[in-house]
Amino acid sequence: MQVDDLTAISRLAGKDYTHLTPISLSGSLRGELAVEIQRATIRNNIFELTGSDAVTETFSLINPFAKRDSETELECAAAYFKVTEGVLISPDQLAIETRKMKIRGGGEIDLHDETLKIDFVPRAREGLGISLSSLASAVRVVGTLAQPRPVPDTDIPDAIEVEGE
User: Contact 43/70 with Cβ under 8 angstroms?
Assistant: First the structure.
């Protein structure tokens, strides 16, 4: 992946004990975490090469062009999480925009039990002349951090707004 601009800002605090494990330390974190990427090119087979089936499957579900195109031109991606006692919450502040797709999402990552539930809702950009509903679906990524699994989900609330809709 080639990234032209990456910005990460965090204001995190946690317990400062010398005998804590990384898991117990991460479970005490509080603050904010924000990441922004501008202009990147993603080789669509990169996740296959790393052996990450969950990431590959999620990417294919939310980006139907990944199977057809060799690369995805990422215009921007942003994520914001509020962190309280090791629980990262982003109600609807995950955003990915490519030349062909707008993807919005939100969810929760709990560092105490290392579980996650993140929803992604994709929409085709205007002017593509396709019916996205037949190509991509809302996806919920659930499970543990070690074994996340994507699930096509028609029950994801429409409260996750996609601009221009």
Answer: yes
Query: What SS3 state is found at 80?
Result: strand
Whole-prediction pTM value?
0.72
In terms of residues, how long is the chain? 165
Q: What is the pLDDT of residues 10-28, one digit of tens each?
A: 666 666 555 566 666 677 7
Q: Residue type at 68?
A: R
Burial (CB count <10 Å: 0-12, 13-18, 19+), residue 28: middle
Tell me the CB-side half-sphere exposure of residue 163, using CA atoms within 13 A.
6
Q: String of b and e for 81-103 (b: at least 16 CB within 10 Å)?
A: bebeebbbebebbbbbbbebbbb
Instruction: Dig out the tokens for 110 from the structure.
Output: 């709990």
pLDDT tens, 61-99?
777 676 677 787 888 989 999 999 889 999 889 998 988
Within 13 Å of residue 135, how many CA atoms lie on the same side as its CB?
18
**Per-residue pLDDT reduced to its tens digit, 41-64:** 877 665 554 445 666 667 667 776
Query: CA 61 to CA 37: how far, in whole Å?
Result: 21
